[in-house]
Amino acid sequence: MLILPKNRYHILLDSVLKIPFNMLMARSVIADHTDGVIYVDSPEHPQSFYIIHSYGMSFLCGNSHNLDFNNDLLDYFIHRSFPRKKAEWLQAFPRDWDDFMNPLIEQGIALPSRRLNFRFDIDKFYEIYKQMATTSFSGEVIPTPTEMLFEIDGTVVPKDYWKNPEQFSSMAKAFTVMVNGKPASTAFTSARHDDKLEIGIETKAEHHGKGLGYIACAKLIEYCLEHQLEPVWSCRLDNIGSVKLSQKLGFVETLNMPYYHIPLSKTRN
Questions:
Q1: What is the predicted pLDDT for the residue at 134?
Q2: What are the angstrom distances between the C-alpha of 254 and each of 96, 126, 137, 232?
Q3: What is the pLDDT of residue 267?
Q4: How many folded domains does the chain comprise?
Q5: Are 130 and 86 in the same domain?
Q6: HEC secondary structure over the chain
Q7: Is the domain of 73 the same as that of 192?
Q8: Is 61 in contact with 16 (CB distance < 8 Å)?
Q9: Which domain holds residue 19?
Q10: What is the pLDDT of residue 234?
C-alpha cells in the first residue's frame, strides 16, 4: 500500500465517477480542496485505492482481492505500519469489500453502521418551505463572513472540509443564523463539484431543537436553486436529527448502504 503523489490524484477521477453513490468528499481530496491522503497498490496503474478525507471520511474502492494491499490495509487499521491521526467513517465499493470488512467487525476493529444517500425533490422542498416561511424566529440569516468561517467550532465545520477561507470563498457558500449577535447555526458547502453542492450543517448545542438548522439550510438550498446547483445530502442512518432535517428540506432517501466506523483505538471483542 503506497501513498499516491498529489500530482497523480487525477488518475483516479474516472474510476471515482463510476461509483454509484455520493463520492463528492473523495473528489474534494482528488481536486486538492482539502487535505487528505490516497493509498494505492500501484502509483502508475492503481487497481485498489483508499481515499481519506481530512474530516475522517474514507473510501475503499477497486479490486478487493489484492492480497498485499489488503494486508497493508489491515496494518493501517490496527496502527502498525501506517499510523492514523483520527477515527474514520468508511464507505466501500464494490460490495465484495464487505467480505474483507466483516471479519474486522467480528474482531472489533470496525464497527458496523449504515449510510443514507438522498435525492432532492424541489416540489417537496417548496411545499414545506411555504409552511415554514410563516414561522417567526428571533434572529437573522446572513451570508457567513469569510473571517467567521474558520472560527466556527463544532463537529461539522468548514475548516474540516476546506484548506482556507479564501479557497472556500472562491468556490463555496455558507449562511449563518445569528441570534443575539452570535452565530447559532451555519449551513455551508462541504463539497462542490460540477453542478452538485453538498450541504454541511452545524448548530450550537444551546440552539438545538429550535429549527435554526432548517432555516440556515433552506437559505443555502435557495442559493443552489438560484445558481442551477443540485443540493446534496448524505448522513448516517442513526443520525436521527440529520435524517429528519433532510426530510423537512425535501430530500428523499435513495440508498441505504453499509458504513464502517474505524475507531482510532483498536478494540477487540
A1: 57
A2: 21, 20, 32, 12
A3: 45
A4: 2
A5: no
A6: CEECCHHHHHHHHHHHHCCCCCCHHHHHHHCCCCCEEEEECCCCCCCEEEEEECCCEEEEEECCCCHHHHHHHHHHHCCCCCCCCCCEEEEEECHHHHHHHHHHHHCCCCEEEEEEEEEECHHHHHHHHHHHCCCCCCCEEEECCHHHHCCCCCCCCHHHCCCCHHHHHHHCCEEEEEECCEEEEEEEEEEEECCEEEEEEEECHHHCCCCHHHHHHHHHHHHHHHCCCEEECEEECCCHHHHHHHHHCCEEEEEEEEEEEECCCCCCC
A7: no
A8: yes
A9: 2-114
A10: 97
pLDDT of 121 higher than 60? yes
Same domain, 167 and 57: no
Residues 152, 90 within the same domain: no
Query: Could you tell me if 127 and 48 lie in one domain?
Result: no
Position 147 confidence tier, pLDDT thresholds 50, 70, 90: confident
- Residue 188, pLDDT above cutoff 90: yes
Q: So what's the pLDDT on residue 155?
A: 87
141 and 231: one domain? yes
* Percent of the chain residues topping a pLDDT of 90: 78
Contact (Cβ atoms closer than 8 angstroms) between residue 105 and residue 96:
no
Residues 146, 178, single domain; the answer is yes
Least confident of 71-85, 174-188, 221-235: 71-85
Amino acid, single-letter form, for residue 212? L
CATH code of the domain covering residue 12: 3.40.630.110
Q: Same structural domain for residues 62 and 20?
A: yes
